[in-house]
Structure formats: structure tokens, C-alpha cells
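Before the break, one more example. Copy the sequence into your notebook; we will annotate it together after we see the structure.
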Amino acid sequence: MAAVEHPAAAPSRGSRLAVLDGLRLLAAVSVLSYHYTGINLDYWGAKPLVEFPTLHHLSRYGYLGVELFFIISGFVILMTAYDRTVHSFVASRVARLYPAYWVAILVTFALQQFWTGGRTPSFLEALGNLTMAQSAYGLTNVQGAFWTLWVELRFYLLIGALMMVGMTRARLLAFAVLWPLLGQVADANGARVVSSLLITPYAPYFAAGIVLFLLSTDRRNLPCWLALGFTGVFSVAQAAGYAHRAGELTGAPVSPVVTGGAVVLMLLAVLACTQGPLARIRWGWLTFAGALTYPLYLVHGQIGFFLIDTLQDGMNSYVVLAIATGVSFAVAYLLHRFVERPAARPLRRAVESSLVRLR
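Here is what the structure looks like once it is written out:
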């Protein structure tokens, strides 16, 4: 395996970027608000645009929390992968993603057996969901938000391949610049398999996160700043191009200017959170907030919709919204406390030792 170049000033895995954790939770809450009050679904007995006319002006843009997740993922995954072996990286991702995900699928599938208002995957489709690669086989996602996990897995695959070649700053920078371009070329020429592997619609966000990681190690590097501008422009263009489709999903106009501006603010926010005074903040509640982000993302969908669908006839809509949000947070905490924390370390060690033996 090729040697790995270590940047002198890279943030270590032992020192969490607490404000970045808080930003991750903000992204999750943004997606939650979009699903509950932004997207054009009938769980309220009326369209969210009618039920929450004021809130909808903001929540219709909540889907951009996914784009923020991808930018942050580009940064964080590079920070965790940079000085690791491939088998250590794989073990850390398996231990981080799968325990809470498996339990979320079991809880959701059990809920779906007596609640007919949500998704109705078959038992075989639920089993396929356990792999997290169900989208590759055309199987129904047990929850709508799970589509992003297949995107993340393909990003990890690309990073794993890059680790096998050998990570250096120059290679990372070249990869971040060329990856979105190659994806667009593949897409324009109908190379669907290549385009899918390169995650063409979302590549600019991950690539921008990679460049932000490089800038966190050397903020005076001019090529990195140019690459941030390059990937940032592609990210803005991607978000603006999706605005019309987002408007169809929310039942109200979504402005390309607003979406593009939001992406610029996201890039600036991640930049601010990963270097300078904000990067030195160590507030424990922010780290705790970051720990709840993933389980909240996993459980808020069908559980929240079930509560909304069940309670909306007899209660004020804002009270129902508060209950659905509060219960989702409570379940997320239980998932973190009793599944993620106990399972992560032993599973990581077991996977890593097994991969080492195979090698």
C-alpha cells in the first residue's frame, strides 16, 4: 500500500470540531423541517403550504440540509481517512453507520406493519435495506431519507480507492477538481454506470468539502483557494439547477438565486467552523448535538409522519409539529445512547481485525 503523506496542521481525530458538529445538527433539523412542513405531502390533512403558510417560506428550502451534509462529509471523511489504512477506514465507517441504521430499519418496519399511511416495503425489501445498498438493486427505501446513504457509500468507495493509490495533498487537490468534471462528461455522454459511480449530481459538494479540509491544513495555499472557487461554482450551479424540481415537490416557487446563495453561505460556514477562533471552541453540548445528528436523520421520517397522521385531526398543527419533533429527538437519543455508543467500538475492532486477517 502506498505511503500516506501527513499534513503538519491537519485537525486530528482526537480533537473534534464542536461547532462543525452543531452545524451538522442544523442540517438535520433543516431536513426534518422540510419533510414535516415543506414537501408537498398530505399528512396534515392539507398541503403544508396551506397549513404552515409562513413557516413554509423557509422550510421549502430545508432540503438544502442534505447538500450541507455532503459538504461536511467531504471534510470529515478526509479528516478521518487521511492517516488511516484502508481496513481501518472501512472498519470505522461500518461501526459508525450500521448499528443505528439496522435498529432504525427494524423499528420502522415494525411501525409500518400496523400504520398504513407510510411506506409499505415488503419483507424482502426490508432485508435488502439492511445492506444500505438497496438503491443499487432498485429496492424501495424503508424511509425516504435513506437514499442519501447510498450516495455516501459511493463517496466512501471513491475515497477508499484513493487511499489504495496513496493520499497526498496534490492528489487530493487534483481529485477534487477533476472528479466533478469527469462526472459531468460521463453524464453528458450517456455513460450511466460511470456517472453513477462518480455520483455526478452531488460530486461538487463532496469535492468542496475535500478542498475545505486541505485549506484547514494550509490556509495560505493559493491553488486550494482557486479549487474552492472552482468546486463552489459547480456546487452553486448544481443547487440552482435543482430549484425548479424542488418547487414541484414543495408546491411553491423555489428561487435559484436563494438556493445558490444558501450554498455559498454553507461553504463559508464550514470554512469558518474548521479554522480560526470557531475551530477552537470545545463546548460539550455542541459535540452532543453532533452525536444526535445521524440517529435523528435515520428516525425522523416515518416516526414523525406517523405522529402527524395520527394526531393532526384533534390538535393544533404547531403542537403536533412540536410533538413529532420532540419524539424524533427522544428516539434519536435512545438510539445513540443504547445502540451507537455500546456497539461502535467493539464492532470497529472486530471488523478491523477480521480485515487484517484476510489481508
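The longest helix spans residues 317-358. The chain has one domain: 18-358. Try to locate both features in your own notes.
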